[in-house]
Amino acid sequence: MFGSDALRDELQTLKVDLARLLGTSAEEAFDRSKTQAEALADQIKAALSDLSETLSQEEAQLSRIISERPVTSLTSAFALGVVVGLLVRSA
Fold it and tell me: DSSP label at 77?
């Protein structure tokens, strides 16, 4: 079989190869996760931009509705306040 020197050399070679593979894998995994995180951040930024635009449009529409029907809007807000007040008081 193998002598102790040959076995030690073989184990040392395996140790070096394993360290190299683990080092490369860690770097590749880090690069991959960094790329995925950047892609996710870009998607979140795009979604927030779309949300901001939609909210701006809805705010303009709500403003228009309130200005067209001020009495109805005031009555609705008062009724909603009463309901929320009752719910908070009973909780």
Answer: H
DSSP string, 1-29: ---HHHHHHHHHHHHHHHHHHHHHHHHHH
Give me the torsion for CA of 52, 56, 62, 64, rounded to 10°: -170
pLDDT of residue 59: 93
Q: How far apart are CA 84 and CA 91, in angstroms?
A: 11
* Segment 75-88, tens digit of pLDDT: 999 999 999 999 99
**How many CB atoms neighbour CB 29 within 10 A?**
10
Which residues are within 8 A (CB) of 10 and not within 5 positions of it... i.e. 6 or more apart? 2
pLDDT tens digits for range 19-65: 777 776 667 777 888 899 999 999 999 999 999 999 999 999 989 98
3-class secondary structure, 59? helix
